[in-house]
From TrEMBL:
<dbReference type="Pfam" id="PF16321">
    <property type="entry name" value="Ribosom_S30AE_C"/>
</dbReference>
<dbReference type="GO" id="GO:0045900">
    <property type="term" value="P:negative regulation of translational elongation"/>
</dbReference>
<dbReference type="Pfam" id="PF02482">
    <property type="entry name" value="Ribosomal_S30AE"/>
</dbReference>
<dbReference type="GO" id="GO:0022627">
    <property type="term" value="C:cytosolic small ribosomal subunit"/>
</dbReference>
<keyword id="KW-0810">Translation regulation</keyword>
<comment type="similarity">
    <text>Belongs to the HPF/YfiA ribosome-associated protein family. Long HPF subfamily.</text>
</comment>
<protein>
    <recommendedName>
        <fullName>Ribosome hibernation promoting factor</fullName>
    </recommendedName>
</protein>
<keyword id="KW-0175">Coiled coil</keyword>
<dbReference type="InterPro" id="IPR038416">
    <property type="entry name" value="Ribosom_S30AE_C_sf"/>
</dbReference>
<comment type="subunit">
    <text>Associates exclusively with 100S ribosomes, which are dimers of 70S ribosomes.</text>
</comment>
<comment type="subunit">
    <text>Interacts with 100S ribosomes.</text>
</comment>
<feature type="domain" description="Sigma 54 modulation/S30EA ribosomal protein C-terminal">
    <location>
        <begin position="130"/>
        <end position="183"/>
    </location>
</feature>
<comment type="function">
    <text>Required for dimerization of active 70S ribosomes into 100S ribosomes in stationary phase; 100S ribosomes are translationally inactive and sometimes present during exponential growth.</text>
</comment>
<dbReference type="InterPro" id="IPR032528">
    <property type="entry name" value="Ribosom_S30AE_C"/>
</dbReference>
<feature type="coiled-coil region">
    <location>
        <begin position="73"/>
        <end position="100"/>
    </location>
</feature>
<dbReference type="InterPro" id="IPR036567">
    <property type="entry name" value="RHF-like"/>
</dbReference>
<dbReference type="InterPro" id="IPR034694">
    <property type="entry name" value="HPF_long/plastid"/>
</dbReference>
């Protein structure tokens, strides 16, 4: 498994990196099949350390956890506990969904744009109806079943997930509604 352990304006020592690798290895080998890479980022927020852990699985799923504490090791251990709980909770669902999958999830390329926010403080009409593009990136869209997409969205803690439906190769969207339920958009 590939590791990317980094700190935002923090020096990460060899002892902490060794601790992170051993704990993530133990969690991944116990609850996840074929993890591909893990990313652990440490940062500071006022007087606390923040740890963000993300583990990518070959099935296309991504599990993420975030925690903060006054000590850097405690912040990582709290994030690792959240990750372990998350993977344990979804282990049965992961096995059920991927037991018949012989190949890893396919990815399609798509363009992603970040648009500038309109300034509504003035009453003037904009010169153009075309929005100002701030950034342009490439995104990978996964080819999943609806159940896998919902699971991926929940594991990532994301409010919305765009995916390619395996059933008919159309682009679909699942999202968390305000009432707590999951919505699914399947254009005709």
């Amino acid at each position: 498994m590939l590791y990317q352990i980094s700190g935002k304006q923090i020096d990460i020592g060899a002892a902490l990196q060794t601790h992170v690798k051993s704990v993530v290895d133990a969690i991944a080998s116990k609850y996840a099949e074929r993890p591909t890479d893990a990313s652990v980022v440490f940062s500071r927020s006022s007087n606390e350390f923040v740890c963000e852990v993300s583990v990518h699985l070959s099935t296309g799923l991504t599990a993420q956890a975030k925690a903060h504490d006054h000590e850097i090791y405690a912040a990582f251990d709290a994030a690792a506990d959240k990750m372990e709980k998350q993977l344990r909770r979804y282990k049965r669902r992961l096995k059920d969904h991927h037991k018949e999958r012989a190949q890893p999830v396919e990815f399609s390329e798509a363009s992603s744009y970040i648009l500038a926010q309109q300034d509504d403080s003035t009453d003037n009409e904009p010169e153009s109806l075309q929005p100002l593009i701030v950034a342009e990136m490439e995104q990978k869209i996964q080819s999943l079943s609806v159940g896998e997409a919902v699971m991926q969205m929940e594991l990532a803690g994301a409010p919305v997930l765009v995916f390619k439906n395996e059933g008919h190769n159309g682009v679909n969207v699942v999202y968390r509604r305000d009432d707590g339920n999951i919505g699914w958009v399947d254009p005709a």
